[in-house]
């Protein structure tokens, strides 16, 4: 919901663009900090959700660490003042160059996803006379019950190390002089709104910890990844995810060993609701069943609907007329360039301002130049003169 000052500001910019409500991001971060502090939990922000420098520097001021999935994300984290000793680095395909960047920066931990990766990190660390701290990213075979493209923790996925490889890993670690095992890492998927999924994860981690204990191994930290979902259907009713219940669940069901730290890697739940993609109606075109509202934003600015049929709430900020149904589409030459079918909007006309909500996560970071379009700019609530 926006007031008239904000509307006039948005309406005066060239569309399409990303708009970020930094007051909301600030309150979200306050909530995370308060709730995590009750249990001394460590939260890393998953940079891949939104790497906009203004967003990163605000998040950084709350003392969060960074979760990176590429060498360039590590560089971006450091540029925006995330301390190296709070950076974790995951990814199934870390290149030699990226491993070197991470070693040179002295990051907190590599989250390792395979045996050959551990061998390569050991080799590169040896050549640099360094020790790499690693956690094993374990595939716990827990189904996240989310879209299959964003499920990462079941046996068939490419992510992580499977339990039947543990024996071999322990042997490898004994012979890897430049590797130091400090943690066990899990990340089972994204946009998980059913908290019982995280309960299943906790119980599975308890079993896995027992296996390692039987083999005389207690790691310094457990990292349960991210994946906590947001309410895409009702962004104004639930602007801040329920971090209180989320962290309380881990406190209740995860059995940490003495002095063991618990780490999280949250992306979407931190930045998702603070962003909107603002666009203008180019044309309203007759269709067979419903009319088309053709926007000047498309899959180049927001890929999620085209990539995995993701739902985003769409609002007409300019019209208060009676509602009609529209297929809301972008200008790109692909039929998947569609933000929603039969969307009920107040009667819509050329030049109306449209907000596509909850685009703070996996929006701007996935922008592309397809059709040789320019990358859209971003604007921030803090810059509106009140
Ligand atoms: C993407 C990712 C995250 C963050 O996921 P969200 O669903 O945005 O919270 C955390 N950890 C890893 C390893 C990831 O790949």
What tags apply to this protein structure?
single chain; 386 residues; alpha/beta; TIM Barrel; Lyase, Ornithine Decarboxylase, Chain A, domain 1; 2 domains; eight-stranded mixed β-sheet; eight-stranded parallel beta barrel; binds pyridoxal-5'-phosphate; PLP-binding_barrel; lysine biosynthesis; EC 4.1.1.20; Diaminopimelate decarboxylase; De-COase2_N
Please give a structural write-up:
There is one protein chain. The strands form two sheets. Strands 1, 10, 11, 12, 13, 14, 15 and 16 form an eight-stranded mixed beta sheet that branches. The two termini are 16 Å apart. The chain contains eleven helices and 16 strands. It has helices at residues 4-11, 22-37, 53-60, 71-79, 96-105, 115-127, 166-174, 196-214, 243-253, 268-271, 304-308; strands at residues 17-20, 42-46, 65-68, 87-89, 109-112, 132-137, 179-185, 221-223, 261-266, 275-285, 291-295, 314-316, 323-329, 338-346, 353-356, 377-380. It has two domains: 22-270, TIM Barrel (Alpha-Beta Barrel); 273-383, Lyase, Ornithine Decarboxylase, Chain A, domain 1, CATH 2.40.37. The radius of gyration is 22 Å and the shape is elongated. Pyridoxal-5'-phosphate binds at residues 46, 48-49, 67, 69, 90, 187, 190, 225-228, 265-269, 361.
Structural class given helices, strands, pairing? alpha/beta
What is the N-to-C succession of helices and strands? HEHEHEHEHEHEHEHEHEHEEHEEEEE
| Shape, principal axes of CA atoms | elongated
What is the level-2 CATH architecture name of the largest domain?
Alpha-Beta Barrel
Question: Cα-atom Rg, whole angstroms?
Answer: 22 Å
What name does the CATH topology of the largest domain carry?
TIM Barrel
Biggest sheet architecture: 8 strands, mixed
How many structurally independent domains? 2
User: In percent terms, what proportion of residues is strand?
Assistant: 15-25%
GO biological process, one term: lysine biosynthetic process via diaminopimelate
Subunit structure: Homodimer.
Binding site for pyridoxal 5'-phosphate: 227, 265-268, 362
Domain Orn/DAP/Arg decarboxylase 2 N-terminal: 26-271
